[in-house]
Every structure is written in C-alpha cells, then in structure tokens.
Amino acid sequence: MSVDSLWTTDEVRMLIDERDPGGLIRVGRLSLGWRQAELGARIGCSASTVSRLEQRGRHSDLALLRDAAREVGLPVHVLAASLGLSAPATTKVAPSGPCRAEEDPMRRRTLLSAVGLAAPATLLTGLDDALASGPTGSPVPLDVRLATARAHFDAGHNVRLVKLLPGLFADAHHAARSRQEVSLARLSITYCLASQVLSKIGYYEESRRTADRAAVYADLSGSPLAAAAAAREMSIVLRHLQQPAAAQHRILDAVTKVEATGLKTDAQASAYAQMLCTTSYTAAVAGDRDQALAMISEATRAARYLPHESPDGRIFAVTPATVDLYAVGVHWALGDAGRALNVGRSLRAAQFKTAERKGRMHTDLARAWWRWGKPEQTAAELLAAVRVSPGEVRDRPAIRKIVTELRSRHPHVPGVRELVAAAGARA
Q: Above pLDDT 90, what percent of the chain?
C-alpha cells in the first residue's frame, strides 16, 4: 500500500472520526513493520510508553504524540483531523445573549476553588467540559478576549485569568478547525498563557500538559514565533521538574529556529533575546556558569537596539530592561547575590510596562537580598511587590517560602506582619 493511500483508508477515517490519534500512530507503526519497542527507541521512550500512547491517544503527552506522528509518517493534516481541527468552521447563530463561561456549571469546575487557586489540576477537566459543550457563542472577538486574559496575567490577577480560560479554549479550538495559521497560532498562544500561570503558581505537571498542547498547535500553525513561545514554556516546566538537560535541549532548538529567521524584524529579535534569556537562566539553575554567562551576555547584545517599551500584542515583550532583570535572576541562581544586586541597582519599576513585571523585579531583588542575609531589604522589596502585584507574593510557592522564613526567623523586621497577611494562610 502506498503512503498516500495508507492515510485514506476506511480504518483511518474511522479513527479520525473517533478522535483517536493514538490509533493512527499504531496504523503507521504497523505499516512500517515496527514493534512498539522500535518506535520507542526512535522517540526516546519505552515500549510500554508507546503502548499507552497508542491506547490513550489525545489524552497522552502531546509532544510525544507529535514526535511519534513524525516518525511513522502521519501527515500533519491527518493528525490535525484526529485532534478535531480539520472540519471547516461553520456559522453558528449566537444565543440571544452571550453564554458566559462562569455561568455554565460544567465550566465552573476550573482552577478556582477559592482565591488561593487551590485546585489548578481541574483546569484540564474544565477544559474538556468546555470543549464538549462547544463554542460559547460570545460575540466578543477572540483577539480581544485573549488580550484581556493576557492583561489579567500581566496585572497578576491569576484568579480572574483562570476563570476565562475554559471558555476561551473552547472558542479558540472551534476557530482553529479552519486550519488557518493565525487561528492555530492563537490556540497555541492560549495554551502558552495557561502554562505560564500554572507554572507561576507551582503546578508543573499540569503546566507541562498545557505546554505540550501549545507545541502541537504551534507546529500545525507553522508560525516560528508561536513555536518559540511553546518551546520556552516547555523549557521552563522541565526546569522546574528537575530535567535541566531536556529543558536546555528544547530551548536551544528554539534559539536555532528563531535565529534562522534572520532576525529581520524587532519581533524576531525580541524572540531571539527571550530564548537566550531563558537558556541562560536554565543553565544557571543547572550550575553551568560558563553557558549561563555567555547566553545572558549574548541576550544583552541582541536586545541592545530594541525599543525601551515593547509594542502591545507582541508575543515576546522584551526590552533591554527585561534582559537586565533576567541577569539578576541568572546571577542569583549562580549563587552570586552581590552581582545580582549590582545588576539590579539600575532597574526601576517604571522601566516595566506591566504590574507582573514590576512585581517580578521586586521579588527577584528580594531573593538576592535574602540570599545575602539581609532580611530588612528582603522585606522591603517584597512589600513593594505586594503593592504593585499581590499575586507575585501570594501565588508563588518560592516567594511564600521566603515570607514563611521571615516570619519564623525575623518576626520583628518592619513589614513582616503585613507580608504574612498579604501571602495568606499558605504563608
């Protein structure tokens, strides 16, 4: 049977209808005469993992699913169809009023059990519910809603953000059935945003799943910037999951692909600088000082001619000050608190456009002061973070830990009581 005819059989059509990409992987593997162990060796996993991949299909690790599809020759359009993206978008008559996601009892089962974001693991359940329910019928354009969701992240309003995600996902998936590049890229960016907020609040396994999905849809879109954004999120997740080698592999591959664009526009140069910053920090966390310092130095050069205020809507909102803030984190991760503080000495909150970045500047400086054994300065920076973006202290496990240690070891330092209250019971 020819390769083309393999993917047009009745069995393949049935698997597409059943939304079973794992079954399609099995068809491709068997057509090549491979055992599961042979496919596993090609994509870096065990035979049992391949077995689970074929059985669980779209509920599997989507990055692994994508790699397996490439190995067995599964065409992109067939994979897209099995993921529910092939049917042309149809005209849908909106209900008399917009169906608000938070009003649907199925969609309410998302991250939010309280202000503390106590159950983020249910985001994907809420997502599945939303997709099963179909598009929301909202008359508000997706671009506007995605910008609103991004604004919530930038403002540190994590609770408000996750309320929007299931309905936003449902409509982004529906739009992506057109298979247009912009719709697929928008869907990927939506998954990236979910991955960002999940990583920020410390739910890394859930973040990995959403980053996987971001990578799949970025590949389908063909957008190098969407692919870079997805690779960055996966690299961050892998770093938190103590897999520095895998994290470095993902981000270095992304650096190469972005560099191949020729860096002819500010958007491409911003993406390149962001990839280098992420690479540097990942190397620093892994203890690779030479790589970390080389990459942050290159990022500084790459960002030198970027505008000091990033335009609205840019995927990678990188400025020279953004790179300097990363340098603070890099030196902190390398154990050099003094150098981190020296780099951070020139930073000002006014250099950052969003509350999230302003808050991040203060928490990064607080970490450096804490490592240097300066509780008063630590508390002062954390209080400054609370005042511009409370979520940077309240929702980040690493920062709450510092608040806990301040309360335990330095309870009489000015501001500690206020910090404990701001961080909530979890501090």
A: 34
CA dihedral sign of residues 262, 266, 270, 276: positive
Binned at pLDDT 50, 70 and 90, residue 426 comes out as very low
**Residue-wise pLDDT tens digits, 374-393:** 999 999 999 999 999 998 99
Return d(Cα 215, Cα 112) in angstroms, integer: 26
pLDDT tens digits, one per residue of 128-186: 666 666 778 888 998 889 989 988 988 888 878 888 888 888 899 888 888 788 888 89
In what helix (H) or strand (E) does residue 332 lie, and over which residues does it extend?
A: helix 320-333
Which alpha helices (DSSP H) does 34-180 contain, by range? 36-43, 47-56, 62-72, 76-82, 123-133, 142-154, 158-176
The kind and range of the H/E element at 343 are helix 337-344
pLDDT above 90: residue 329: yes
pLDDT surpasses 90 at 407: yes
Q: What is the DSSP string of 71-131?
A: HHT--HHHHHHHTT--SPP---PPPSS---GGGSTTTT-SS-SSTT---GGGHHHHHHHHH
Please give the structure tokens belonging to residue 248: 């470095």
* Residues 315-336, mean pLDDT to the nearest whole number: 94
Q: Give the tens place of pLDDT for each residue, 215-239.
A: 888 888 888 888 888 888 998 888 8
CB neighbours of 366 closer than 8 A, spacing ≥ 6?
Answer: 377, 378, 379, 381, 382, 385, 399, 402
Q: Where are the domains of the chain?
A: 3-82, 99-241, 242-322, 348-427
Predicted model pTM: 0.67
What's the token pair of residue 236? 């961050």
Dihedral of the alpha carbons of 156, 158, 162, 165, in degrees to the nearest 10: 20
Q: How many helices (H) and strands (E) does the chain have?
A: 23, 0
**How far apart are alpha carbons 242 and 234 in whole angstroms?**
12
The residues, ordered by sequence, that sit 6+ positions from 253 with a Cβ below 8 Å of its Cβ are 231
- Measured distance CA(93)–CA(337) in Å, rounded: 58
Residue 216 and residue 73: Cα distance in Å, rounded?
Answer: 16
- Whole-number pLDDT of residue 198: 87
Please report the DSSP string for 188-235 in residue order. HHHHHHHHHHHHHTT-HHHHHHHHHHHHHHHHHHT-HHHHHHHHHHHH
Architecture of domain 3-82: Orthogonal Bundle (1.10)
